Amino acid sequence: MRSQRLLSLLLILQTRARATAPELARELEISVRTVYRDVAALSAAGVPVYTEQGHNGGIRLLPGYRTDITGLTAAESRALVALTGRAIPDDLGLGTALSSAVHKLIAAVPASHRADAQRARQRVLVDHTGWYRSAPPTPLLGAVQEAVWADRRLRVGYRHGDGRTAEYLLDPYGLVVKAGVWYLVAAHRGVARLHRVDRIGSAVALDERAVRPDDVDLATVWTGLRDRFEAHAAVRVRLRVSADEVDLVVRMTDGRRVGDPVVVEPGADGRAGVEVAFPSGELARITLLGLGRAVEIVEPVELRDEVLDAARELVAAYGG
Question: Residue ranges of the WCX domain (predicted)?
Answer without folding.
Answer: 234-314
